Fold this sequence. Notes:
- Chain A has helices at residues 7-19, 21-34, 46-58, 61-67, 70-73, 79-99, 285-291, 298-303, 356-388, 396-407, 415-427, 431-444, 451-464, 468-481, 488-494; strands spanning 131-137, 140-142, 153-155, 159-161, 168-172, 176-180, 185-191, 195-209, 217-221, 226-229, 232-238, 244-250, 252-256, 263-268, 271-274, 279-282.
- Chain A is an alpha+beta fold.
- Chain A has two domains: 104-354, Jelly Rolls; 360-501, Tetratricopeptide repeat domain (Serine Threonine Protein Phosphatase 5, Tetratricopeptide repeat, Alpha Horseshoe).
- Chain A has a 16-stranded mixed β-sheet that branches.
- In chain A, helix 1 (7-19) packs across helix 2.
- The relative contact order of chain A is 0.05.
- Chain B is mainly α.
- Chain B has one domain: Orthogonal Bundle (Rna Polymerase Sigma Factor, Chain: A).
- Chain B is built from nine helices and no strands.
- In chain B, helix 7 (156-167) crosses helix 9.
- The longest helix of chain B is centred in the middle third of the chain and has 38 residues, at 95-132.
- In chain B, 35% of the residues are buried.
- The A-B interface holds A 21-22, 25-26, 28-30, 32-34, 36-38, 41, 44, 48-49, 52-53, 55-57, 59-66, 299, 302-303, 390-391, 393, 427-429 and B 38-44, 46-47, 50, 54, 58-59, 62-63, 66, 69, 72-73, 75-77, 79-80, 83-84, 86-87, 133-134, 138, 143-148, 150-151, 166-167, 197-198, 201-202.
Amino acid sequence: MSGRATEELREQYETHLRRCHDCRRVHRLLLALYEDPFQDLPEPSPERHARMFHRILERTDAHRALRRPTWRRLPLRNLGFGVGLAAAGIFALSLIPATSDPPAALSTNEPHVLAEPTADTGGIDHPAQGFARRLAGSASVDVPNARASSGTVYPVGSRFRVPLSSSLQLTLAGKVVANLTPGTEATWHEASPQVIRVELDRGLLAMRYDRRPADPILEVVTPDTVVRVVGTVFTVQVDYEKNTTVSVLRGEVEVLDTSRSGVLAEVQAGYRYDHRAGTFSDVGRSEVAAAMPISGDEAALAMGTVPLGWVVPGLSDDPDGRHLSSVPTGDAAPTPTSLNIAARRTPTSHQDHEDDGEQLLEELMADAARARRNEIRRMLHTCRRFYDDPDERYRAAACLARFLKRYGRSPLAVEGYLLVGMLRMDYALDFDAADIAFQEFLRRAPDHPRAELARYRLWLSATEDGRISQALERGRDYLERYPNGRYVGRVLQRFPELKSSL
Amino acid sequence: MIERIESAAAARHLAAGSETEERSSYLSAEEARLLDRARAGNAHALRKLYDTYSGQVRGHLYRLLGPDPDIDDLVQTVFIRAFNALDRFKGNSALSTWLYRITANTAHNLMRQRYRRERAKLALRWFNLGRNAHVQRASHVEVRDEARRLLARLSPDLRQIFVLYHYEGLTLQEISHIVGRPISTVGDRLTRARKKLKDLATN
């Protein structure tokens, strides 16, 4: 009929349609069919759109190649030149110790290691790894033997004093990247297959350590603690009162007492631990700013954003919104959060106990609690990984169900409810189940760093499900609680009439 | 023929990633520059491509598969494949056509699996709907849903051609390029799809 039938034929057809019920039904059906019945395509939220792009980027070969170290991107024809250069470099470095102390004295504390690597020497197995290299910035450096330093290469034992007008970026042992902020004083004490040790006297030190299984542990020693790292991005600060503050952006670190006999705290990504106050708070802008130059995420660096892998409470998941200026400045005097009670300072050996049996019991209980905490975190991490990976997401629901069944009552497991809610909402469109999960999450941890996200999701669930009066109520509640929140714009975009709630 | 040779030469030049004034006739100078940067792994260029074409890819998948929780994952798969194959894109077609082709290939196996698995279920549902069709007059939404169900009963090959021609508005030549079949085959499938839909709607 589409323009090809004559006027007379069309009139006959329409007359017939008016009389024939079945023909009208078929006509309407064919009309719907040819007019595209798929015009109600749901658009993803900007947040999901950006998240999807980031995942695509992570799996794009060309982009990954761009992020690889420069020497790995060199074409093969340059390989011969590269090998020659490397050989010359190694030869030159091997001459340096020969003119100074023997290589066995690379550690100022324990004479040790690099000269005779054994089968289990781990990731430190080359003499060149006994040196730090300056990447950028400037500082006054005290080198134990001045002849061992070329101006940009420093041996173990070097002491760095960064002036107030500058900062210094270094690689240590070819594995750890450090940013020493203005006013920082630190000494590199040891590089052995077991441990890389740095002593921080004062100032703010940011470090990134992408540790492989055979690599040594990294320790940052401060006047009152030892921060032990297995692989993460973190900062350590020693203030003028010699108090230590540890902030973690990715991974987890342990804070030990100076004798290394007891764990004072385990600090997870997104938290700042104040040793003297024994409290936790959210990481703030100063720590993120110190760590950004060493993030290693070229895409994030190019766009001037905080890497998506870092946990920064109060910062959007949308890559475009993760600018440093959006990071909350953080409290000067951190306040404890309800969730971290379990991870707080544990009674350890620096307290005197008259009864050895009681002390032993307490230690055993502390060990058991720590083991359980680690188990919970590991399993939650596994479920989160499934959730984040499109190929494995189908396993996330079962994983979270198992997780909540086993650990649902633990305060550390509360994030599981949030993930379940998001999974039900985004992938099953089961808004009722999502509501229950978000409400349970908020009931258990109303002050959790992700409570804002849960309240936003509650609002979104009601909105997407068409429960408008409930959406208005939840939107009002959200705006009253978070007048400067991350999602204020999105709530107002849907319901401009809620502006008066601000 | 000369045009084709010139086009191929331009595409080879593009593939080499070098700047040139000689470009594929399917690509604007801006698109060619964008592609050069995307091939080098530039995040901004890749983001631009993603922003420009994600709507097309998503819409096409939606029309091929219907409402589906896996659409987001498939969109990601399409773009990962596309971005990893940018070096092999020779500029012999518009970028959108090339992406249609990747989308069609990505969705095709899934469509076939589902069609095989759900054929009996769909037929039963259709039968029950047909029995009650005279009882009440269908609303606009119900007619739309019925049209979708009807489309779901087309075999994947026929549905793909029907969607590309009627919903995406492509020509038979473009569809032929996307599905890698002669134009005569595409035309034949389109006729069969229309006839099948008419039979289903009439019954």
